[in-house]
Design goal:
6-stranded mixed β-sheet, about 400 residues, about 25% strand, alpha+beta, 8-stranded mixed β-sheet, 12 helices
Length: about 400
């Protein structure tokens, strides 16, 4: 079995397949496995899956457990509009706490569940060809391999997607993102709290929280793309431009941005939900199947859910992998599409200009309980109700 792409989704697929006793090889085009970017949220629906892979201890060593989430602040004066207790209350409701971590640390956590012998680096896939049984894979150097199943975990610019039936490239959303890491010793004290803080303002919003055991503060900011169309997490932006985008915002936020000395910048891409994720023995997972805005902080979590369900389905129907992949799509596509569309909708809500609609939004926070409101995300167990002929995939790994 072949997985194309060695990011979080691809390694998660390999980890769950390996745990189920299925031989798998991961083909990654880069010369080394490394995640660019910075922080991400590991919500309870993702944490329980990492626990089943036996990797919860590694996560806990590197991540920060959030005590408070959704601390919404008004852009102009920093006034707290709403905050939600997490910590023990989150664990009581959903069985796990909510964490924030560096993306590279999460990649290492998942990679630890994949045998080193299963990784093939510097292997860029350029062509797939259906065979009577399986798929022939051609790489950029002209070499080939054959697999009974090919899983495309190769991101929004997926090559594997061409062989599933995707039409057209993703489109620019008109928004761009900035991402910074600020050493804790340079950051204002309020940014060091184990809190996920969101600043909301006209056409823009900004999120920050501590990661790497509190050694760094992760900042991700969203605003108009202007003429920026480069879509790459490794692209450097100008920290002066980031500060200018949030010029005139509250003094606390201005102080945090003053502590940043460099930033990444990339354009946000958008894609309508795909009509299909599978084509016979070929399937997509993660961003290749459902790229989503980061406004619900669910990209990595949904990829982990994909991986767990994919492994279940293939274990249950080993003699008919195409049917197993169809079942995987039937289970996963409605939920991932719902998260994808919800994430898209948050852009308008977060970026309201000052006025009646913004005031109504801010007033509505007092009536909200996001921990309950997001229960459909956090409380979801993707393998409940699924059966496995050979393995109890729901078992706790440690």
């Amino acid at each position: 079995m072949a997985v194309v792409g060695g990011g979080i989704g691809g390694l998660a697929a390999a980890a769950f397949l390996h745990r189920a006793g299925i031989d798998v090889t991961v083909y990654e085009q880069a010369k080394e496995l490394a995640e660019v970017g910075a922080g991400l949220v590991v919500s309870p629906n993702a944490v329980r899956l990492l626990r089943r892979l036996g990797q919860f201890g590694r996560l806990r060593e590197r991540a920060v457990a959030l005590r408070v989430g959704w601390e919404f602040r008004r852009w102009a004066d920093g006034r707290v509009l709403f905050s939600q207790e997490l910590g023990d209350e989150c664990e009581r409701r959903y069985g796990e706490q909510c964490y924030v971590t560096h993306r590279a640390d999460l990649l290492d956590v998942v990679r630890a569940a994949v045998p080193e012998s299963a990784l093939r680096l510097n292997s860029r896939v350029v062509e797939l060809e259906r065979l009577p049984r399986g798929v022939e894979i051609t790489f950029a150097d002209g070499s080939q391999a054959v697999a009974d199943v090919v899983i495309g975990a190769d991101g929004v610019h997926t090559t594997v997607g061409r062989f599933v039936g995707q039409t057209g490239p993703p489109r620019f959303s008109g928004m761009c993102a900035y991402r910074c890491l600020v050493p804790a010793h340079r950051a204002p004290a309020f940014a060091l709290r184990p809190v996920q803080t969101l600043w909301l303002g006209p056409e823009r919003h900004l999120v920050h929280y501590p990661i790497s055991g509190g050694a760094l503060v992760n900042i991700v900011a969203f605003g108009p793309a202007h003429d920026w169309t480069t879509e790459s997490w490794s692209t450097e932006g100008r920290v002066e431009d980031l500060r200018a985008e949030f010029g005139g915002w509250a003094a606390e936020l201005t102080a945090l941005l003053a502590a940043a000395d460099r930033t990444g910048q990339w354009a946000l891409l958008d894609r309508d939900p795909l009509p299909r994720w599978t084509n016979g023995p070929i399937a997509l997972i993660g961003d290749a199947a459902h790229p989503m805005f980061p406004f619900y902080a669910q990209g990595a979590a949904q990829a982990l859910e994909d991986a767990a369900v994919l492994a279940h389905c293939l274990v249950d129907q080993p003699a008919d992998p195409s049917a197993a992949l169809e079942r995987y799509e039937k289970i996963r596509r409605p939920r991932a599409t719902r998260v994808q569309q919800a994430s898209r909708g948050r852009a308008e809500t977060n970026h309201l200009p000052d006025g009646p609609a913004q005031q109504a939004r801010d007033e509505s926070f007092a009536k909200e309980d996001p921990l309950t409101h997001n229960g459909w995300i956090y409380g979801h167990d993707p393998v409940i109700g699924l059966t496995s002929n050979d393995h109890d995939m729901r078992g706790v790994g440690e």
